[in-house]
Amino acid sequence: MNYDKLLMKIGGFGRFQKRMLALLMIPPFLDPMTSYMLTFILGDHKHRCQMPNTMGDPFNSTLNMAANISECFVYQNGSTTACNEWVYDQSQYKSTLISTFDMVCDNKFVRSHTMLCHYIGIFCGAFTYGMFSDTFQKESPRWLIAKRKLSRAEMILKDIAKENNANFDIDIQKIKVDETQERVAFCTAVGELFKFSISMTYFGITMKVGNLGGDVYVNYLISTSAEVIALFICLYVVERLGRKKIFSASMLICGIGCLCTIFSSLYGGPSLHWLTITLAMIGKLTITVAYFNIYLMVAENFPTNLRSFAIGICSSSGYAGSMVSAYVGDLGVLVDTKFGVALPLVIFGAFGICAGLLSFALPETKNMPLPQSIQEAENISRKQYKDGGSVLLGRQPVLTTALIGMMLPNLIRSFVSSLPLVGFLIFANGYFSMLVYDTGYILATELVDSSKRVFANFAYYFSFCIGEYVLVILAYFIRDWRILGWSTSIVVGIFLTSLLFQKESARWLIAKGKLSRAEMILKDIAKENNANFDIDIQKIKVDEKHEKVAFCTVVGELFKSKILTFRLAIFMFNWFSISMTYFGITMKVGNLGGDVYVNYLISTSAEVIALFICLYVVERLGRKKIFSSSMLICGTGCLCTIFSSLYGVPSLHWLTITLAMIGKLTITVAYFNIYLMVAENFPTNLRSFALGIGSSAGYAGSMVSAYVGDLVNICY
């Protein structure tokens, strides 16, 4: 008997799972309050040179207007010279890191470097999680079974059955674990590529939403709303259509939407600015759907022993994409034409379309149990599963430590005046925020049975969007970056106490051989779910050889498999693209023009829409179709901003924002799916590794997004 069948017997989604899932929604709710705050404290702060030999120089002084003073140069003594003092407009922001450290003119790329610190921290966190989580995590029954830690696994399963009011009369000795060490690397490579594409697009649209024009707050509000919409889409679609279909569709739509901003930007003019924003928000919505799916896909494509590593690697790739997105988002600054607004979205769109097309090579993991061995991961398309486990690093202590680590740098940063120290604290915040999100996600994924996996993913991501809504509200009323830092840190500190009620993962405990502890948890689960747990887990003998398998040996298993290696390469590229786009749009939402708060709100709403799309479509159409289409749509939407930026009149600025939000929505769908796809494409002993690698690729994409998003400053 595999673990999923055992979980269904004691309650796959009973009262226990619902209660734990509610608690697990708190960490992602807190995550954006500190990490995405950079959207506002590093926002485009309007400035001009201060007049020489003057005091109390107001920004909108009529005297200054008559003196022909620009942002970076001042006319003095018959010549034009670069200024070294500036006056900042306080109508939108009262105080930001830009105004505090004068990140303008020749120092304008210091902003990108500062944001890069955040993405590097996320990248390191993803890589660290993927490397060590499978070694220290102590709570998943699935992983414990894979590692033959049966006594502890039995205790956890009994707790699950007990809390879910289910009977547990299964002989755990009959639960078979396939430890075949065959080729496993295709999905990991694919996940890296996916995560990079998704992250680059997602963060490229989100973090540079102000570049779309219009009110940066409105743009951000729309962007956030697009995420919310994406989440609901995922909620009702992913389980119906499958991961692959939703992921592919979201990436394609995101790409197409971003590409379409070309027309609204080039030919639309100001009157069609709304179209550019709309296309960008479509990209945001669809990339959110992709984001939703990619975690599922990575988790479902890799075995237990490699799942954390795969998620970590793919996340790293994704945040590499997010790093790229910061600079891609600012490419518009380099091009002093209408095309400048659309240029970053065009790049996001191109990556989205490539990732969407590449996702067709992945298997569909809808309704498939998480693979436990490499052989099971390779046989996903033939449904030859025997199931498997979880991840490695103790999630509960890691989650607690990560939340504290996320809060403290954010709080300390508000009191320092040294830019290098600020950069280090931003790095630390990014590092721990990644640990918070990925650790909580693995817990949520392994908490429920396969039929509720998409819903758990939806609930987890949806709480993240709620956190974004809270952030934009706080940022709107608190325009000083230091006070905003204090406020968000206080919110995180208040919710830290919720971790006292969070239980360890029985699935992982079984895989680690911590059978006594696993049995206790499983009994609690069975009791709360009104189920019986009458299995003597102590009779299970633990094979210590499984526990002594070195990390390098596990990684070696992955790359012995050409199929899984190829999958991993595709996932890494997509994750990189997703992260670059997602963070590029999210963190640079102010670049879209208009009110940054409205832009962020729209961006978050696009994510919510994407989540609901994933919820109702992924299971119906499959992971692959949704993922591929979302990446392609995101890429197309971002690319289309070329036209709205170059040819659109100011009245068409909305079109650029719309295209960006389409990219945000679809990249969110891709984000939703890629986790699922990676998790479902790799066996138990490789699942964590695959997720770690893919996640790392994604965060590499987020690093790139920091500079991509600032390309607008070069084009300006």
UniProtKB/TrEMBL annotation:
Domain of life assignment: Eukaryota
Protein localization: Membrane
Primary location group: membrane
GO cellular component: membrane
Transmembrane segments: 21-42, 113-132, 184-205, 217-238, 250-268, 274-296, 308-329, 341-362, 392-412, 418-437, 458-477, 483-501, 568-585, 597-618, 630-648, 654-676, 688-708
Coiled coil: none
Keywords recorded for this protein, A-Z: Membrane, Transmembrane, Transmembrane helix
Membrane topology (UniProt): Multi-pass membrane protein
Matches recorded under InterPro entries: MFS (IPR011701), MFS_trans_sf (IPR036259)
Protein name stated in the entry: SLC22A4_5
Annotated source species: Mytilus edulis (Blue mussel)
